[in-house]
Fold this protein.
Amino acid sequence: MAIFGVGVMVGPTLGPTLGGYITDAFGWPWIFYINIPIGMLALALSLSFIQDSRYQVKAEKVDYPGLLLLAIGIGTLQTMLERGERLDWFDSQRGRDVRRDQRGFADRGSCGTSSRLSIRLWTSAS
């Protein structure tokens, strides 16, 4: 447990200092480039040490309507959270549309019936 605690403490203490040094010495794009060799090392170590399980079972069928509904539902949630304060949360017409659509996705799930998604939600408000 102490090892996990060290990781939790070292990241926030060394991160800004190391990030400031890299930015000052090499420029701000290197903050992103520094992750490439670390990611490659992590990929190489993962491929060499993690083996496939002999009990692994492949999924026979993918629930594509469910995935689509999940993506649309999370999209409407994100839209509500981003625009909610500006549009007075649920008091505006668009806020009510988002809330109704989320309720419709939760009610219907992926049972194959048509959703109550409002096309007005995806149109420009300006």
